[in-house]
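Data availability (excerpt). The following record was deposited with the supplementary files.
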Amino acid sequence: MFASIFECIFGEKEDKPTPPGVSQSPEDVAGEIINKILTARSRASLHEQLNEMNSTCGWSDTIVRGILQGIENAIKSGATMGRAARDAVAQSEEAAIEFASNHPVYSTVIALGVMALLTPWALEVLGFGELGPIEGSWAAAWQRTYAGQVSKEAVFTYFQRLGMEWHWIF
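Predicted structure:
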């Protein structure tokens, strides 16, 4: 019983062997599940179908990762989806937008991280210069919020370090 609970919470360490009489690989099972997710008309019918599949093949890390990748690819490609999947995508988008608006600093940090990794020169434009924050810049205004006491662990410190180093990295 504890092993089952542990697997539900943390996932399995490796794939379960294919049960006797079932010849599907984890990738095939994931594909079948993705197809069911994308074509389902209602959540109730989808839950019933997936519970039935789970009792015959069980869930594994490979299956769950395959499902996630498949759903991601379907969303990115604009694949045709049944009502349940369309509703779930819309609900997820609303939740993500709500989270971003309720946690603007978190969203800003993520956006800065993306920018720092993909366009490091933008750090200098924001004011994270080679010799420290550039006077009158956005970075200088952010530094003022720390009242002169920026800790080593601050996100500001991370971006300033990148601003001082990006010329050498790229």
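Summary of structural features: The beta strands are 128-129, 132-133.
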